[in-house]
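Protocol step 4 of 6: structure prediction from sequence.
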Amino acid sequence: MRVCRLDEIVPSSGVCALLNGRQVALFRVDDRVYAIDNFDPFSKANVLSRGIVGDLKGELVVASPVYKQHFSLTSGRCVEEPDVRVSVHPVAVEDGYVVTALPGSRCAGASRAP
């Protein structure tokens, strides 16, 4: 299922997508897309898509905009508290579109892809 066009996600930033009723944070880094839960387990808010993407000791992470914990974009592991994780979701880029195996998905604020 197409979620949105890749160019609808600003490079090195994130957007929120609704995937079957679940908020997922999509991040575009070097024309690759990563998908993790949008729910921050520390602040109990759906905010991770608004976090800052970066590299922390060689690991691609997003910093929560609330309490600043870092979550791996590849494993979902919290760098500061390794026992805490967020789910990682399958996502790819095909023909310029962000795609997922989950039907009924679309980027929040982005136009629906045909």
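Step 5 (inspection) to follow. The longest strand covers residues 22-29.
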